[in-house]
Design goal:
The complex is a heterodimer of chains A (377) and B (228). In chain A, the strands form two sheets. A six-stranded mixed β-sheet of chain A has the order 4-5-9-6-8-7. In chain A, strand 7 and strand 8 form a beta hairpin. Chain A has 377 residues and is α+β, with helices and mostly antiparallel strands. Chain A has two domains: 204 residues, no CATH class; 160 residues, Barwin-like endoglucanases. In chain A, helix 2 packs antiparallel against helix 8. Chain B has a single domain, classed as Rossmann fold (3-Layer(aba) Sandwich). With 228 residues, chain B is an alpha/beta fold. The radius of gyration of chain B is 17 Å and the shape is globular. The chains are: A alpha+beta (377), B alpha/beta (228). At the A-B interface, helix 1 and helix 9 of A face helix 1 and helix 2 of B.
């Protein structure tokens, strides 16, 4: 065992000394390689953390949301619907929700006005999301006026600001009292935007959705799992866009790495001949080259991955934020919780370290099996 | 110590350009002596050195090292024997550019599994003995021809071999350096090593450091002189 370790130490020493001979070339390769891993790992970590965040936030969402449709478009829930649903078995809780969109011409952004189910917002006051606080420069107890679609101006006092950790979904949120909401939007009494339903048995969600669709044929039940799937697809789609943009760079690197690794110069061939003549076996030469491939690719992988981790979870993923988080005037600003997907790490490791090491080995195999007396001829 | 019986060596065997570099060599080389193979270019000196040094196998005939038949050994065993028992000084020195003198000297010991500090200490001792201690960290391409050759000698000795093989060792040296090299050879023989070299340099062949001269031509031994 000790002999084996000493052999590997000697081979690594030689490999490092050998790499140091072409410092600029190898450092350049390492830098490009690290950058590639950094970019790929950043995209993977960011998307995974976003998906995880969305799942965490949506965990508290209702199992089913019922929307009424008119001509295929979302319409208000008229009075009497809640009573009809009350007859369906398995529905644990139901609640008419009030929410709507408001376009603020001052900052050219849409807000979501909403009445919280638990209440708690006094008349004439609002609770706002953190992005709104930033963009409109609001603070507690400050006043703000919104011009309703009717043309009337309404003023509110900021009573509270929503916590930053929910900013992914609450950045543009404005919570208000039900009376204020109905007055502001001239929302007819007894009408709701949609209905949120809680189901006692999660296994029954699909059955209840089917019953809802049968009982209220003009309505569409939306399941929580469908919302999660939609979020997942959106993030996957954005991830795809980033990777498509980067594919050119990835290909360029692949060509560079292949050329570097697979092309064996006359000087390198001569050196292999010398090593064999002075007592190295074919296996020693191959082991030395494996170390070369592993040292370069593993260093690039580790440095690139750690840099990506810091970029995403400490630096907020500034480089890919616009694409991966989405485009908006009210930009959510939040710290992603460190979340690593083991499979993604293994996949990235496999597709970066293994191909490079293999590319190093292929030409060496041929060169290392040449006769050791070649250097004497 | 080394015995060759009816050894023949062909290159490109079976092809239109087949060439027999050695043709029926019978030779016995004694231990602890300096033996020189001499002859014109193409006489087969270097090919004979490669067979003696386990760098290649004969096409036919037998080669024995300390009584053991080595002509049919698989490459792996041949390599181990070469690393353990033979040290090589090549005509062009064949040092690895970009590495320091010390790194070059330590190279043959890398697959041996000896602790690095032991190899380093041995390299330091050899550098000291060959008056190269001050050039330990210098890259080999910065060294003079004489210094490069001494690095090549130190590299050949790092695994403490019984046999030192040198191919045209004075071809790239001036007279002073060639004499210095012969003095080094003599010291090796006196400490019990066997030295085999090829040369057509009269300075080497006529040197008192060389105990035996074997003349070759067209792949055969044509004359064999022992010293008194």
């Amino acid at each position: 065992m000790n002999i084996w370790i000493e052999q590997q130490r000697a081979l690594i020493d030689f490999t490092l000394a050998s790499l140091a001979r072409r410092k600029a070339r190898n450092l350049g390769l390492l830098a490009v390689y690290t950058l590639l891993v950094f970019v790929l790992a950043s995209v993977a970590l960011f998307s995974h953390a976003l998906r995880h965040e969305a799942t965490r936030v949506l965990a508290d969402a209702p199992e089913i949301v019922l929307q009424r449709l008119v001509a295929g478009r979302h319409d208000l829930i008229p009075p009497g619907y809640l009573e009809k649903i009350g007859n369906i078995r398995g529905v644990q809780k139901m609640e008419g929700r009030l929410w709507g969109y408001y376009y603020d011409p001052v900052i050219k952004a849409n807000y979501t006005f909403m009445v919280p189910s638990a209440g708690g917002v006094e008349r004439g006051t609002i609770v706002i999301g953190a992005a709104l606080e930033r963009v409109r420069g609001l603070a507690l107890e400050t006043g703000i006026s919104f011009r309703a679609y009717s043309g009337k101006l309404y003023s509110f006092v900021v009573a509270d600001i929503l916590p930053h950790d929910s900013e992914l979904v609450s950045a543009d949120l404005v919570l208000m009292h039900e009376d204020d909401f109905r007055t502001f939007f001239e929302f007819p009494a007894g009408h709701y935007t949609d209905i949120a339903l809680a189901v006692a048995n999660p296994q029954e969600v699909r059955n209840i959705a089917a019953k809802l669709a049968a009982a209220l044929p003009d309505s569409r039940p939306i399941l929580r799992e469908e919302m999660l799937r939609t979020y997942a697809s959106i993030f996957a789609w954005r991830e795809g866009i980033v990777l498509a943009i980067l594919s050119g760079a990835i290909l360029a690197f692949a060509i560079l790495a292949w050329d570097k690794a697979a092309g064996l110069s006359a000087e390198e061939k001569r050196e292999i001949g010398i090593l064999k003549a002075i007592g190295w076996e074919t296996g020693d030469v191959i082991r030395m080259k494996i170390w070369e491939g592993v040292l370069i690719s593993l260093t690039a992988f580790l440095v690139g991955y750690v840099a990506a981790y810091l970029h995403v979870f400490r630096g907020g993923g500034v480089l890919f934020e616009p694409v991966l988080k989405g485009w908006a005037v009210l930009y959510p600003r939040f710290q992603l919780a460190p979340e690593i997907d083991g499979l993604a790490v293994a996949t990235l490791f496999f597709f970066t370290v293994v191909p490079y090491t293999a590319a190093v080995l292929v030409p060496i195999w041929r060169a290392a099996t040449t006769d050791p007396d070649a250097v004497m001829r | 110590m080394i015995e060759l019986i009816e050894v023949r060596k062909a290159f490109n065997q079976g092809k239109h350009n087949e060439f027999w570099a050695l043709d029926g060599i019978n030779l016995c080389i004694e231990a602890h002596r300096v033996t020189a193979l001499c002859g014109p270019s193409g006489s087969g000196k270097t090919t004979l050195l490669t067979l003696i040094g386990c760098l290649a196998r004969p096409t036919s005939g037998r080669a024995r090292f300390k009584g053991e038949d080595i002509s049919g050994l698989p490459e792996r065993f041949l390599t181990q024997l070469r690393r353990r028992s033979f040290g090589f000084v090549f005509q062009q020195f064949n040092l690895i550019r970009g590495l320091s003198a010390e790194e070059n000297i330590m190279l043959p010991a890398a697959p041996s599994g000896l602790p690095q500090h032991v190899v380093r200490a041995r390299a330091a001792m050899l550098l000291d003995r060959l008056r190269l201690a001050h050039r330990r960290t210098a890259r080999v391409e910065w060294l003079s021809g004489g210094e490069q050759q001494r690095v090549a000698i130190a590299r050949a000795l790092i695994n403490d071999p019984e046999v030192l093989i040198a191919d045209e060792p004075t071809a790239n040296l001036d007279t002073t350096l060639a004499r210095e090299f012969l003095a080094i050879l003599e010291s090796f023989a006196s400490e019990g090593r066997t030295v085999i070299l090829s040369s057509h340099d009269p300075l080497v062949i006529q040197s008192a450091a060389v105990h035996r001269v074997i003349n070759m031509r067209d792949g055969r031994i044509v004359a064999n002189y022992h010293d008194a």
